Model the fold of this input.
Amino acid sequence: MGLLDGRTAVITGAARGIGFAIAQRFVREGARVVLGDLDGDASETAVTELGGTETARAQPCDVTRPADIDALLRAATDLTGSVDVMVNNAGVTRDATMRTMTEEQFDQVVDVHLKGCWNGTRQAAAIMREQRSGAVVNVSSLSGKVGMAGQTNYSAAKAGIVGLSKAAAKEMAHHGVRVNAIQPGLIATPMTTAMPEHVWEGKMHEIPMQRAGEPGEVASVALFLASDLSSYMTGTVLEVTGGRFM
Done:
């Protein structure tokens, strides 16, 4: 038996990177997954790689729009009648120094990460409280713990996700719904590996394990928080960083 047998998981930003790795791990553990992403073509490719429509569905989703989150969650309930796991992973970066960052760049990152996470947590929790069960996993970042130069928007949003998760956990615990967060560090995805070599090397020097993490290593932690292995955990923040900034 898989750790998520018979459960339905909704994952935002799931067409590639960490979100897709989480979807892969969940499917291997018996879940059916609904992938929410703005990139329709990449989402359909992901569904095929996950085994087709018997195990995965794609739903276009802009997480800043509550109506899109509603449609995403309906796709899950139409599939199996429940939403057992919600992973709020969607994100964007618009890095710039505070001096040069535009208001639009700040708002876009905060809207996608923080408001998007609030939309997903709030709307999934409304379904889960009626079921008297469910797990929400919110993807924050190490940037939300220490703050990164050139990321006042991203660091603020990711720190906000931690506070949001803890507050939601307190509200939802007596309804049987758990809310936890993950803070990944440097993870080898197309976005991070595209950075200049000197920037990459600088980050590597900060990591005691002396390597970047893999998306699957974040997915394993998401599986832990989504499954009954973490049944007595809520409001926690787990770092997946190789020891960076511990």
Residues 77 and 170 are 25 Å apart (CA to CA). Residues 103-131 form the longest helix (29 residues).
